[in-house]
Each structure stands twice: as C-alpha cells, then as structure tokens.
Structure prediction request, 351 residues.
Amino acid sequence: HGPGECLNHWAQDCHFLLYLTGKEGLTHLPSLGPSANPAQGKAHLKQCDLLKLSRKQKRLCQREPGLAETLRDAIRLSIMECQYQFRNERWNCSLDGRTSLLKRGFKETAFLYAVSSAALTHSLARACSAGRMERCTCDDSPDLENRKAWQWGVCGDNLKYSTKFLKNFLGQKKIGKDLRAKVDIHNTNVGIKTVKNGLKTTCKCHGVSGSCAVRTCWKQLSPFHETGKILKLRFDDAVKIFSATNDAVGHSELVGTQRRSHSPKTPATPRSTDLVYVDDSPSFCRPSKYSLGTAGRTCSREASCDSLCCGRGYNTQSRMVTFSCHCQVQWCCYVECQQCMQEEVIYSCKQ
Ligand SMILES: *[C@@H]1O[C@H](CO)[C@@H](O)[C@H](O)[C@H]1NC(C)=O
Prediction:
C-alpha cells in the first residue's frame, strides 16, 4: 500500500479516510488542471495511482474520470475547515501527529472522520452538478419542481448520487466487529448526514422584468463552512461510548451516557447526529505523539491565552504594521492614500 500508515478498521483493505486525513494528503499530490478533460485520455489513471486507495477504490477511481480530482478537493476542503474550526483550540488540527491520533478513539478522531466524510459527500455532489464527472450529473429526483428546473438549465447538487457512491466507496457494508470500527462508521455517517441536513431549496424567478410568473426551484448544498460549524458543535457535545450491544441478527447499537441535561450515567443510545468517542483526549498542552503542543501559539489575550497556554503564560511582542489611511478620491475613480503606521501587539504561549 505504499508509504505511510495503513490501518484497517473497515474492511480488509486500507481505508481511504486514513489517507484522507493523513499527512500524505497534501504533499504527495501534484497539482491537477482545473478539470479532468476526457480528451486527455488516461491522465486520470495516473491521478488514481497517486492516491492511496484500496484495490476496490482504485477500480472505482479509474472508472470515473474526474473522481481523483474530486477526492483531492475533498482532502483540501476537510483540512482547511478543520484547521479553521480549531484555530483557537489546543489541538489545532495540524497534520503533525495525525497518524497517531487516528489510531485512538478521541473526540478529535471523531471530528476527523466526520469532517472527512462530510467533505467527500459535499465535493462529490458539487462535482456532479458542475459537470466534472461522467457518471453523474444534476440532481435527478423525479419531483415536478426539479423537472421544471432542468428545463431552465438549472442544476441541483446531486446528493443522492454522492451518498450512494460514498457508501460503496468506503465499503460500509462490511461492518467491523470491534467497538472502534463501529464508532468510526457512526462518526462517518454523522458527517454525511450533516451535509444532507444542510441541503436547501433555492428558487429563482423568471418572467417579464422579474415578475416571477415562472419560478424554478432546485436543491443546493450549504456552504461547507456551515457544515464545519455544526460538526464543531457536535464535537463540543460529543458522547462517550462504553460498549455496543449485539443482537442475535448482528445488528448492534452503541451505548453511551446521556447528555448533561439528563441524569448522569444513564445508559443511552447516542443519536445519529451525535459524534461519539471512546478514549479521553490528552490535554494537547505539551508536545506528544499526538500534537506539537501549544508553545509558540499566538492567542488573544482577552479570549484564548489562558486556556491555550495551559497556565504557562504568554510572551508579548509588539511590532509596527503599515496600512493605508486617509484615503481620498482624486478625480473620478482614482484613490490616493497615505501609509500609516500602527503598533500591533502579538501574544504567544510560552514554552
Ligand atoms: C498548530 O500549532 C502548532 C504548534 O504550535 C504550529 O506549529 C502550527 O503552525 C499550527 N498549525 C495551524 C494550522 O495553525
């Protein structure tokens, strides 16, 4: 399976999400063109080789020009969103230590699984409606609104295809036996579901001078930032899992404790929207195999320095920054500014 770590919580094969959230994601890939042009023939086959995929995933990748690039989009999207959502946390979603983190069942691991599958779902559905894939196109639900939209050349995001494809791609049918496998699958599904719940109907008016004589509506995904924000809230409220019940039919349910608002320590099944975890997280204050620690992190004195610096205190540094000021319009359309200087204070966590 090439360089890098390959864990197996899902099936016999390496799991794609581990690649997706692993360090190789950003570094091993050359930049691709803006779209996978079918005229380029077999170029996408090479892109599939560069991704660390299981045999089945590689086959799916090779069959679908445009998929490799979409996978790459998803990797980038999930990393950017994770780092944005955790910019003020001790664990800042840096790629350092991620392989170790993925071996454990922390809350942070849960977030990584969810944000990765959400980004995949999102990117795939968008790639379909943007015409970047050969095997899918606009949302083709048979309802009337949707058919009208097609007539006007409006293309809804194809979440139905992306969800179906993804479940096959990730091989979720082979439910793993151990608790961690179940937890990972649950969190992956939370990601997919969050994207699904964000699907909105958007409408547009047609007709003489916007009279709205004809209205077309189609399904549109929320901006991925909204999904990221919701997943971060789920992270803050994640449920710790103790065991899984196993019915005779092989159907199983995770058992956790109920939220604070209920009586504590009551066993309960987590909701399908809850992120779940099994291991308590380390503090992430000091360098460890999971993170670089928080030394040197810049923080906001009012908001985050106390928690981010773990009581070690912070350094204060000031520097002069220049910016444009006293801007005035000269003639039409020409703006002249002066350069002003201002002192800016930067706080950063001590060693
Ligand atoms: C995360 O924190 C580490 C340790 O201070 C720092 O080196 C790194 O640049 C940060 N990464 C991001 C994405 O903010």
Q: What stands out?
A: Residues 306-349 form a domain with the Endo-n-acetylneuraminidase fold fold (CATH 3.30.2460.20). The chain has two domains: 7-287, 306-349. The radius of gyration is 24 Å.
